[in-house]
Amino acid sequence: MFNFTTLPPLSLYVHMPWCVRKCPYCDFNSHEAKDALPEAEYIAALIADLEQELPSVWGRSIESIFIGGGTPSLFSPAAFDQLFSEIRARLPCKPGIEITMEANPGTWEYGKFREFRAVGVNRLSLGIQSFDTGMLQKLGRIHGAREAFTAAETAHAAGFDNFNLDLMFGLPGQSVAQALTDIGHAIALQPAHISLYQLTLEPNTAFYVNPPALPEDDALWEMQEQCQHQLATHGYRQYEVSAYAQPGHECRHNLNYWRFGDYLGIGAGAHGKISDAQHQRITRSWKVKNPRDYLAKAATPARIGGTQPLKRNDVGLEFMMNALRLTDGFPVALFAEHTGQPISIVKQGLQQAEKKGLIEWDIHTIRPTELGRRFLNDLLGLFLGE
């Protein structure tokens, strides 16, 4: 049984499943756009999907919107103008709401940036991955170094004072010097936010089936340490495992995920998590993944690919799996507010983590230590048996 005295913040995730070409490392629900996009039909489906979700969030406001993919910027600014208008007609939006859109640095998108800004997008996330054309070719990207630089410069010119650059390290054949060159280029472009991920080989990807030769562990650790040092030197504070921001530019949408907030998910394959104070429960759900199926079912209960009511032990583990990724950890009171459970349900894991020097814990805050951040998987593993 859960005991919610208040409900966590609510965000909205919108999934746009089409891209120009599927990257060999990508395990997201993305599909190559081989024909003209069914733009009008998909926007209508998103609104129909949202309509079905409204009873679960009556009276609640959304604090952020994140449009992911796929490549959302394949859709027109007019389509997003309609989408945002329809969302606002159905859900109260908090003043100053953060609206993020993912975009890839293809030259055919640059002219849209200013228009995206005009219809309400106030944060871009650019999938750069590398500034090295050779590395980009190995990753199966459709852009080269020149397009990567131009995308960031165009974002500035379009008035985006808040945009993110996605970068990877540990790429096939990459040296420490090449990784540092990439991070140096990213910093020089002065984005408000940089996401730095190690390339991993995920199941159900082309790289997993035919894995490329990746750098050794010692080189990976050196890349990470030196890149982090460069980011810190230039004012980018690490606030999550892979996220670095200038002051005040942390991604609010992702912070809500990491703090175990609620989120609606609309679109093919989109996931959601909703807390219900009336029935004292938390439920995860996901939509059917195939875009064709989604278009046919978006206005019906058949759009749901599955649901999972969370149990008491689930929420303790899930909260810790997310919140301990944050450099500052979390206020102790937040656990009960966002899970409906007392902090005592994870007391054993907390005690073990403190004993091993992986967390710092007082009456106000629980945060990972530097050792805990370095050995995060070991830290999170202590909560698996709770």
Question: Can you walk through the features of this model?
Answer:
It is a single chain. This protein has 386 residues and is an alpha/beta fold. It folds into 2 domains: 10-256, TIM Barrel; 312-381, Arc Repressor Mutant, subunit A. Helix content is 37%, strand content 23%. The protein contains 15 helices and 17 strands. The chain has helices spanning 39-53, 77-90, 113-119, 133-138, 145-157, 176-188, 206-209, 217-233, 252-258, 291-297, 312-323, 332-339, 347-355, 370-374, 376-381; strands spanning 10-16, 18-19, 31-32, 62-69, 93-103, 123-129, 163-169, 193-198, 237-240, 243-245, 262-266, 271-276, 281-287, 304-309, 330-331, 359-361, 365-368. The protein has a 9-stranded mixed β-sheet with strand order 9-10-8-7-6-5-4-1-11, sandwiched between helices. Strands 12-13-14 form a 3-stranded antiparallel β-sheet, with no helix packed on it. Strands 15-17-16 form a 3-stranded antiparallel β-sheet. Helix 1 packs parallel to helix 2 (77-90) and helix 6 packs parallel to helix 8 (217-233). The chain is globular and about 55 Å long.
Give a quick account of the main beta sheet: strands, pairing sense, barrel closure: 9 strands, mixed
What's the N-to-C terminus distance?
16 Å
> What's the CATH C level of the largest domain?
Alpha Beta
Looking at the structure, what is the overall shape? Answer: globular
Which structural category do the helix and sheet elements fall into?
Answer: alpha/beta
How much helical structure, as a percent, in the residues? 25-40%
Mean pLDDT over the residues: 94
In what order do the strands lie side by side in the largest sheet? Answer: 9-10-8-7-6-5-4-1-11
What is the subunit arrangement here?
single chain
- According to CATH, what is the topology of the largest domain? TIM Barrel
Say how many strands there are. 17
Query: How many helices does DSSP assign?
Result: 15
User: In the CATH hierarchy, what is the architecture of the largest domain at level 2?
Assistant: Alpha-Beta Barrel
What percent strand?
A: 15-25%
Poorly predicted regions are none
Number of domains: 2
The CATH fourth-level homologous superfamily of the largest domain: Aldolase class I
Radius of gyration from CA coordinates: 21 Å
